[in-house]
Amino acid sequence: MTQIDLGNMSLAELKSLQKQVAKAIDEFADKEKAKALAALEEKAREMGFSLSELTGASRKSTRKGAGIPKYRNPQNPEITWTGKGRRPDWVRDALTAGKSLDDLAI
What we know:
Blueprint: H1 11-46, H2 51-55, E1 71-72, E2 80-81, H3 89-96, H4 101-104
Antiparallel strand pairs: 1-2
């Protein structure tokens, strides 16, 4: 390995060298992670699984939560609406009757 005489370098040269070393370290680490991931995926395949099955990554839910109700039907307080999606008939009826969404807010 080549020795570098750091004592004879300017501050700008040292900072440049520091950036180059940091970049080289990051690239090396990324390559090692990629190798490790490939080895783990291969081992999982040998055992009849995918790596995402074993780590639980495939279990991500695409279902969105019902949301928090923001509006309540004045005629029946048990009926609510989150404000997302199509407006329910009772909201449209109230707006047509001259009420505002603020009047229906919980």
